[in-house]
Every structure is written in structure tokens, then in C-alpha cells.
């Protein structure tokens, strides 16, 4: 969920100063239309890591917008009167009426998340709260509200730096309290609970938008642009109903994404490769012959750019396995029978029983990759696919599957080199088609889809492993190592 | 949930024999259209009390419909292969493709309900399963499926009779097993868990329909008609999308409803009334002065037919209360400010703090009564109101409110008598308006709406009390008694 918000998004001052005046004007116009014509309530929720600029952003919104039609509510501890009413009472009181904007700084998410982090509630209670919140928000949407949920994120390091720098400046020292440092110590717990909560409540109705909070220019400009986009979409009726507002998960107004942070130069010499290959293939073989393996299943998913080397990597795995126990599932266009069923049906067919190993050469992620980019399905369909996929994978894992997902990535230049090479070598010529060249033209769209995919489906229980695959040796060993480590960990947790 | 399925619905043989041929023909035609033109999958779930005729009904459907396009799946214990896969795997395998009908006898509801009844899981796990089911069914609907969920119900007595009569007949004796009698012993637990599960999963997308299982003719005809109605609606596009199929909660094809079972002749003489009034007003006064009362709030809701005597009953209560601690909230048309907010907002405003007593003269139930009958809001809006109201009331109760809901009912004749009397007495003339006469013309629509309301919102924690109000004395004492009993029970549960 937070992967794309830890890569150092930044906007320089010149760009910022140039863009802000037009943005402010557009926001004011949208706000005027909202108040005078459109008549629906706008609810902005602001949450996130301490020190990530939540307060500053709210101040900024108040400054940029017409204060008669926007109201910010800082919801901290409950007052006497408030605690004599149900917890949601104070939020109901503060809901903006039609035509107005209400900003909630501290929202119905705060208590469930904080209580869980502090260990005052258990997972079951957190999940109950999440369920309540989902029904509440769905009611608001049905009543016509536009809900915009912003989460300001900082990596652990960035939070530390931020708190320290606030402390150093005499003008801001007062803003850092004891509590802030205590919360910092709980960072990992807080991150885990928030991630779970955000993922579960990121419905197509009201998805969360995560904004990296390190750079103020980036943060402010992102917030303003997201708000403007969501408002304009509803005001201009380019979305058919209030159930179809889909802002991007991560604003990337600075054109920086996950892949920019990878070291694509990593490689492995042939000799070293041969040694490692033997070592990890042997290990993988041993692991799958462990008696406890009968209680598990392994599902390895291979996705990646065209020509990134999925096939070659898969062959290095199957070379270590007993043919009776594994199955490669190549995923192509659905058959007629499959088209007559819900999307995930064709993958359920190939779910392995325990003791078995399934390798998916492409997978259910096609929905949010090729089907999204090529517009083979409606936006609403691929949007809901994220949570359907998370549900599906949760079921696999609850049934003792070890689910290992690889994204093989190569640079655009390397892809070109490989395409051209394929055209030269006769026995590889079948591997390059006009489709490949067409897909290549949409390189940026695919990259954006991959980033959203990783952000939305890299869960604790089923994380993505991004494999730098410009060097085939390096990629193959990284894959084998990851497989061995994950299977080994799973075997250890099997009660024998 | 089951109130309307315990009143002895019945269809006589002559009517049955007359109606069946046309129904069968219509069903076959609908099935043909489904297979040839419409191309969406139909999923029928069949659940309910043992002995309520689930099996017979499925046999009947197989007999009535074209067997090439309908498939029944009896899902009992998981096979070896099935238990080596995630629990949902076998249901995915059995899903009907587009154009076909799949009947599930024993569905994804069976295990969660049975496990909870047997005490093998806790409430938290049941609720997690419910949440999973809701997401699964919402996915199916988004994929275009029509889901029809039928619950065959028997009262405890009826189940006992049914099992005994099956045992007596040598031809059916084999059908009653040890397990059936053991389950019968768990009837109350089973009913409670099922009721909770059904209410939580009765979404506007895929609501449950409860069918009383005592009389085979009624059961069969209801099932056939519900199926036909749901199919026709989708096939003829009278519903705009698959998210708008709303069958009636309880089929009342025999024109029998909850009110037919009430004894409307109950009355109380004036002398006895005076004694009882003094007794219960005194008791109520004492209860509200109990120190533990400060930790509670009381919310009394009065709904009822026009001229049923709500005002008079309320005055008998307030006569016993300290004016500083209660408030009467008369609910009329919403103000302009209220119309700019979500529906429940205007009731949230009047939620009392602890230590206080609020009496709602009409309430949030207007949404599913007058607004439904008079079409002041869309069907989708009042349909979703049931669960929104249940959520709202759950929050009140979690905040230590004692929620007591009265429906005051009078017969149509008694209403006429009162209307006429009001017109005669000058100081009561303001109480009778043309609106009252207009509402009276829609008597049957209102009665149907009330039955659905009771079935969908009479919960364990917030039950409806139906008050036979033809005799005002009787009604007022019944109300005071109920109030005292509920408040007394709540006080006892307060930790002092």
C-alpha cells in the first residue's frame, strides 16, 4: 500500500510557484459550482503518519478555498458530552450539508487504528470496526456524498528526520510532544495496522489515496490536484454516478515511480551463476521432498514485461521439481467456457491441492494489467478486482498455500534489444509478435498499472517480489532464492 | 426475521391445482429466454430448518423446469479432494455458467452457521465468514449473476410435529436421523444464529426470502412464484441493473399476515386500568430515579396506524417522568436543513445522552412506511434503509440505550369509528385531515410495509412490541408494563 509513497517524491519550488495560481483558481471555481449548482456534500478525510503534514495541508486548503463553504473539524479526544453519546454521534453532527465541504482531521478511522496499535483491541474488533465503517461510507455515498480519503505517509526514517527537524527549530519545537516520540516507537505496528485498514476500506466507492508527506510542495500540489480532479469529475458528470469516482491510488505528479528506485545494473557472472543454480535447485528439491510439504501447496505467480524472461526462470524452477507434483499453468485469453463464468473462475480451476506446486505463467493479475490498459474491461471491473484478488489470495493462504508473486522487470532499452535479437534468431522468432510491439508503445501505461498493482496487492501474507531482470543470471537466482526462503519459512511453521 | 413465517400460511389443494400449470409454463418460458437470449447465471441458494421441505422443493424445481439448464448440487461434507482445497473451491467448481440455473442445497452459509451453533466457532469468526460471504456475493452480482436466496422456516413446534409425522410414516421414516433430533434440541441456538446471519447478509443485492415450510402447497407455490418474478424482472429489464432485484421478504400469496394472528379484542375495564396505571407509573418513576439510570438512556419509539392512540399513550408515560430528563421528539416532514443531510441525520440530532429519556412520536421508520408507500423515495433507498436502521440502532444500544419500539395497531373498522368521532368533537377536529382519509385508502399497502418492517428490524437487541390498541386502556398498560420490564432488566445488567 505504501510502496510508492517511500520513493522520495519531490516538486521543485519553481514548478510549484508556477502551478499553484491556476490550481487555486480552478479549485475556487469548482467550489462555487458545488455550492451554487451541484448540491452534493464533499467529505475529505485526512489521516496518516504523525509529522507527514496533515495539519499544514488542512491549513492550506482553508487558505486556498472559500472559507464560507469549507469547514475543518479537528477530532481528537471525545468531550464529556460526546462520550455520553455513541462514538459516531460527533461525526454525524459535523457532516457537511449538500453544497459544502467538510474536512475531518482525525476521522472515524483514528480510534479503531490507534486502539489496535496500543493493543487495547484485538483483530476481531478492528475488523468489526472496519465493517461498520464500510457500511457507513457506503450509506454516505448512496446519499450522494463525494468522499475523498487522503493518507499522508512517511517512511520510518523520514518520520524520524521530520520529528528531529521540527524539534531543532525553536519556532516549531512545541509541535513535537512526548506522544509523538512514543508513537514513533510503534511505527511498525502502526504501519501494519494502517495498511490492513486502508486496504480493507479502499472500496471502489471511496478509495484511499496515499500521498508521500516528505516534500511540502509535492504534498500540497498532489492534494490540490486530487481534490480538483474528484470535484470536476462529479461536477461535469463525466462519472455516471457517485459510485464511480476513481482517483489514482498514488499521485505521481513528479513522474517518479517504484521502478525508478531499482538498481537495474545488478548482475551475476556465469561461473557464480552455475554454482548458485546448483545450490538453490538442490535446496528447492530437498524442501519439496520434506514430509511436511504434504501439508502445504506452493503457488508461484510469474508476471513481467514482455521478454523479461519468465519462461527461462520457470524452467530453472521446474528443473528442480518432481514432475508428478508440479504443474505449469500458462494463462492466455479465456476460453468460451471460461468467459461464461465470473472472472476468477478460470484460476480457481487450477488451484493446486496440498502437496502440490502450481506455477502460473501470467495470472489473475491480467485483469489489472493488460485488461486495464487495453480497456478489455470497464474501469469499475478492474477497480473491484484488486479487493477480489486480495480475497482470493487470502483463501489460498488460509488453505496453507505458499503464494509467491514475481514481477520481472527490464528497462525499455533492454526490451528493445531483446525484441531485435529475437527477430534475428530463427528458433526464437515465434516469440515476437506484432502484439509485443504494440504493447511496447503503451510502456508508460503498463508501468503505471504495475505500480498500482503492487501498491494494492502486495500484502503481508502475499507480498510481491520485484525482480530486476536485465541480467538473466541475476534474476533466476533471485527467484530461486526467494522461493527457497519462503517455502523454508512455511515448512518451519507446519506443526509436525 | 421469521415473524411472518410462523403464522400458518396455507394454500388449499384446489387453488394449488389451478395455479400450478400456468406457473410451470411461465417458468419454462423464462428458462428458455434465459438460455437463449439473456445469458446471465442464476444461483439459487436453499437453506433453512430441517424438515421444512428443502429437499422436496428442489425435487419439484427439477421436475418443473427443463433439466438441461438447471443443476442441483447437494453440498454436504467435504470430500477428500475438496478438503485439500480452500473451502470455497467446491462452490466455484459448481457455479452455473451464463444462461444456466444452479441450485445449491447446502451452500456457503451452511458451515459458518452450523459451526457456530455447535460452539466450534465464536461470534467473531461467524462475523468474519459473513463478511467474506457478502464480498463473494457482491462479486457474483457484479459479474451479472442473479442470486435468489430461499430460507425454509418452521417454528419449533412445527419442526417437532414434522419430524414426528415423518417418523410415523414407514415410507418416510428413513429420512429422520439421530442428527435431526439432535439439531432439534439446538433449535433456539440455530434460530438465533440463522437470524443474525440472514439479517446481515440480506443485502439489497441478494436479499433472503423466508418461506414458511409447514404447508407444501404454500411452500411450492411461493418458491415457484418468487423464482418466476425474479427471472422475469431481469429478463424484461424492468430492473435497470442486477443490483436492483428486490423480491418481497415474505411471500404472502395466501393473504395472511402478522396482524391476522393478533387478538384485537383484548381490553381492560376502567377501574382495573386506574389501579394498574398508578402501579406502573409509580414503578417507572422509581426506575428512572435509580442511581444506575445515569449510565443508561431510554429511547422509546412510537409508530402506529393513524388514530391508534400514540399521543395518549405517550402522555401516560411522561406523566411519570421528571421533565428535566425526558424529551418528546415529534417527527414530521424534514426541514430544509435536514433535507441537505443523509436520511438518518435528523434522528442522530436527537439521540439522548446517558441519563436521559427520549420519546420519538414517529421515527426513522418513516423511511420504510410512509416514504415507501407514498413513493417519496426510490425503492433502492428504502430497501437499504433496513440495514442502515439496524446499524443505527446497534450503535445506540452499544452506547447503553434501552431501545423500545412500539407499533400500535387498530382494526380498519376501529379506525373508521375514531375518524368519525374526531370529526364530531370540536377540540379533536384538528386531529383529522384529508391526509388521514387518503392514507386509509392505502390500508393494505401500509400493512404490508409494517410486516416487512417488523420482519427486517425486530432484532434480539431491539425487538418490536406490537400493541393491540383497539382498547385504549389495554394498550396504555401494555406499553407501560413493557417499558418497566425493559428498563428494569437493563438496570440489573448495569455494573454498579
Fold and architecture overview:
The structure is a homodimer of 496-residue chains. Chain A has 496 residues and is α/β, with parallel strands linked by helices. The first copy, chain A, has two domains: 3-256, P-loop containing nucleotide triphosphate hydrolases (Rossmann fold); 260-493, Rossmann fold, CATH 3.40.50. Chain A is built from 20 helices and ten strands. The first copy, chain A, has helices at 13-38, 54-64, 80-83, 89-94, 110-117, 123-142, 156-168, 178-185, 187-201, 216-235, 270-288, 310-318, 336-339, 345-348, 370-373, 379-398, 412-424, 434-441, 443-457, 472-493, and strands spanning 42-48, 70-74, 101-105, 146-153, 208-212, 297-304, 326-330, 357-361, 401-409, 464-468. In chain A, the strands form two sheets. A five-stranded parallel β-sheet of chain A has the order 2-3-1-4-5, sandwiched between helices. A five-stranded parallel β-sheet of chain A has the order 7-8-6-9-10, with helices on both faces. The longest helix of chain A has 26 residues, at 13-38. Chain A is globular, with a radius of gyration of 25 Å. The model of chain A is unreliable at 240-245 (pLDDT under 50). The interface between A and B is large, with 50 and 50 residues.
Which features does this protein show?
496 residues; homodimer; globular; 12% strand; Rossmann fold; 5-stranded parallel beta sheet; 10 strands
Amino acid at each position: 500500500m505504501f510502496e510508492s509513497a517511500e520513493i522520495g517524491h519531490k516538486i521543485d519550488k519553481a514548478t510549484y510557484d508556477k502551478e499553484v495560481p491556476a490550481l487555486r483558481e480552478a479549485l475556487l471555481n469548482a467550489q462555487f459550482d458545488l455550492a451554487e449548482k451541484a448540491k452534493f456534500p464533499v467529505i475529505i478525510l485526512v489521516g496518516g503518519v504523525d509529522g507527514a503534514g496533515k495539519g499544514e495541508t488542512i491549513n492550506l486548503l482553508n487558505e486556498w478555498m472559500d472559507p464560507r463553504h469549507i469547514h475543518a473539524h479537528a477530532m481528537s479526544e471525545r468531550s464529556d458530552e460526546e462520550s455520553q453519546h455513541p462514538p459516531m454521534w460527533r461525526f454525524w453532527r459535523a457532516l457537511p450539508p449538500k453544497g459544502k465541504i467538510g474536512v475531518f482531521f482525525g476521522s472515524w478511522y483514528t480510534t479503531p487504528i490507534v486502539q489496535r496499535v496500543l493493543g487495547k483491541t484485538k483483530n476481531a474488533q478492528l475488523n468489526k470496526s472496519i465493517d461498520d465503517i464500510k457500511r457507513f461510507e457506503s450509506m454516505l455515498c448512496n446519499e450522494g456524498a463525494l468522499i475523498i480519503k487522503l493518507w499522508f505517509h512517511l517512511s520510518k526514517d523520514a518520520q524520524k528526520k521530520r520529528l528531529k527537524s521540527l524539534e531543532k527549530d525553536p519556532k516549531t519545537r512545541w509541535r513535537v510532544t512526548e506522544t509523538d516520540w512514543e508513537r514513533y516507537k510503534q511505527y511498525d505496528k502502526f504501519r501494519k495496522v494502517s495498511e490492513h485498514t486502508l486496504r480493507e476500506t479502499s472500496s471502489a466507492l471511496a478509495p484511499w489515496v496515499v500521498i508521500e508527506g516528505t516534500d511540502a510542495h509535492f504534498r500540497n500540489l498532489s492534494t490540490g490536484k486530487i481534490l480538483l480532479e474528484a470535484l470536476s469529475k462529479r461536477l461535469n458528470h463525466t462519472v455516471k454516478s457517485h459510485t464511480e469516482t476513481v482517483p489514482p491510488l498514488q499521485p505521481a505528479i513528479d513522474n517518479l515511480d517504484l521502478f525508478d528506485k531499482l538498481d537495474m545494473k545488478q548482475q551475476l557472472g556465469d561461473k557464480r551463476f552455475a554454482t548458485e543454480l546448483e545450490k538453490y535447485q538442490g535446496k528447492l528439491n530437498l524442501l519439496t521432498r520434506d514430509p511436511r510439504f504434504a501439508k502445504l501447496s506452493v503457488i508461484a505467480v510469474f508476471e513481467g514485461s514482455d521478454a523479461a524472461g519468465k519462461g527461462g526462470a520457470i524452467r530453472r524452477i521446474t528443473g528442480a521439481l518432481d514432475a508428478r507434483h508440479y504443474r505449469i499453468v500458462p494463462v492466455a485469453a479465456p476460453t468460451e467456457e471460461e468467459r461464461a463464468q465470473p472472472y476468477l473462475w478460470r484460476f480457481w480451476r487450477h488451484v493446486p491441492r496440498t502437496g502440490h506446486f502450481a506455477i502460473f505463467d501470467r495470472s489473475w493479475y491480467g485483469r489489472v494489467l493488460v485488461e486495464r490498459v487495453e480497456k478489455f474491461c470497464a474501469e469499475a471491473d478492474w477497480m473491484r478486482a484488486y479487493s477480489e484478488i486480495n480475497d482470493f489470495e487470502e483463501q489460498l493462504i488460509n488453505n496453507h498455500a505458499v503464494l509467491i508473486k514475481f514481477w520481472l522487470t527490464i528497462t525499455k532499452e533492454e526490451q528493445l534489444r531483446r525484441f531485435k535479437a529475437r527477430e534475428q534468431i530463427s528458433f526464437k522468432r515465434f516469440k515476437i509478435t506484432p502484439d509485443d510491439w504494440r504493447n511496447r508503445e503503451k510502456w508508460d501505461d503498463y508501468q503505471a498499472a504495475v505500480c498500482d498493482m503492487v501498491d494494492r496487492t502486495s500484502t503481508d501474507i502475499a507480498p510481491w517480489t520485484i525482480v530486476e531482470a536485465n541480467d538473466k543470471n541475476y534474476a533466476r537466482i533471485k527467484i530461486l532464492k526467494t522461493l527457497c526462503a519462503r517455502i523454508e519459512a512455511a515448512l518451519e511453521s507446519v506443526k509436525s
